Amino acid sequence: MTNRNWVDVCNVSDVDEEDVIRFDYQGRVYAIYHSPSGEFFATDGLCTHEQVSLADGLVMNDIIECPKHNGRFNYRTGQAVGGPVCKNLAIYPVRLSGDRVQAAIG
User: Fold this and answer.
1) Distance between CA 14 and CA 19 in Å, rounded?
2) Model confidence over 33-88: pLDDT tens digits?
3) What is the H or E stretch that residue 30 is in?
4) 54-91: string of b/e by CB count within 10 Å (b at 16+)?
5) Which of 7, 47, 97, 100 could lock onto 66 through a cystine, CB 3.0 to 4.6 A?
6) pTM
């Protein structure tokens, strides 16, 4: 069994439904999403195409669109779903602890 380092990321109310925020931790950038169904997700926070912050992008349903070249990813799976991106995003487990969002990113 792998021990996970759960990191306190934000308050549940910090991320509007169908939106994304940036979270920096130990020199890395992450993105935290709040899905239309009320779930939270975490991915790497920089686009795999040109390292632009995804937190400035557009979230629609389960898709994050990069603000620079409009590449798209499914934030639930990390899968690249629209060019010019072709490399998937890393995804991280998320849990809620009371009104706090935590991610296993460390």
Assistant:
1) 10
2) 999 999 999 999 999 999 999 999 999 999 999 999 999 999 999 999 988 999 99
3) strand 28-34
4) bbebebeebbbbbebeebbbbbeebebeeeebeebbeb
5) 47
6) 0.93
Give the span between the Cα atoms of 49 and 41, in whole angstroms: 21
Which tokens in the block code for residue 46? 């920089």
Task: Provide the token pair at 102.
Answer: 């935590």
Pairing of strands 19-25, 80-82: unpaired
Query: Helix or strand or coil: residue 26?
Result: coil
Do the beta carbons of residue 49 and residue 84 sit within 8 Å?
A: yes
DSSP 3-23: ---EEEEEEGGGS-TTEEEEE
Fill in the DSSP letter of residue 29.
Answer: E
* Cβ neighbours of 99 (radius 10 Å): 10
DSSP state string for 50-87 = T--BGGGSEEETTEEE-TTT--EEETTT--EEETT--S
